[in-house]
Write a structure and sequence with these properties.
heterodimer, A: 115 residues, mainly beta, 7-stranded mixed sheet, B: 0% helix
Chain lengths: 115, 111
Amino acid sequence: SAVISQKPSRDICQRGTSLTIQCQVDSQVTMMFWYRQQPGQSLTLIATANQGSEATYESGFVIDKFPISRPNLTFSTLTVSNLSPEDSSIYLCSVVLGTATYEQYFGPGTRLTVT
Amino acid sequence: GESVGLHLPTLSVQEGDNSIINCAYSNSASDYFIWYKQESGKGPQFIIDIRSNMDKRQGQRVTVLLNKTVKHLSLQIAATQPGDSAVYFCAESSNTGKLIFGQGTTLQVKP
């Protein structure tokens, strides 16, 4: 597996502001993803973070709301823009390490509360 | 649309007993399945995976069974311990790396 860290671990933000979440991996990975986990619910894929190009978003998620960067093979950021209370969730990054496996590992998550 | 669902939202077992957590999936094209354990305040932890060309895979105290005929997946935990208390998620994928998660089952272990 890999060591995956996220910053911040939690934050409280006011509506209308933005929060940028960082995901750092201790080794190069082939794939990186961002998920959202709303309170008491399961995980939903937001987007695939593509290295050096625009992220690929799932239905219901758009770049203006969730801009993503992935400048290299070990780092990605997710910004949640124009925050509303409905954005209060846990945001998680995940990685697939190699090309021969789809084993996917998750970071510890970032708990966002919007007031 | 595609969905992965779990039959029981909460499972309560006695310490030392075996636990069985079930999952149904609807996408017959899915060929890779993972079970995760999520403890409170933490990210999902990889437990075990299985490819569609297998019907059983064993790990340490855990076994995953896959029945493609009825699109059913189960996780068996042997000799359940208090440390096994958590929410368990199944997830499916179809060679894209993207995971579709089930609802989650809370496992409660009674001492």
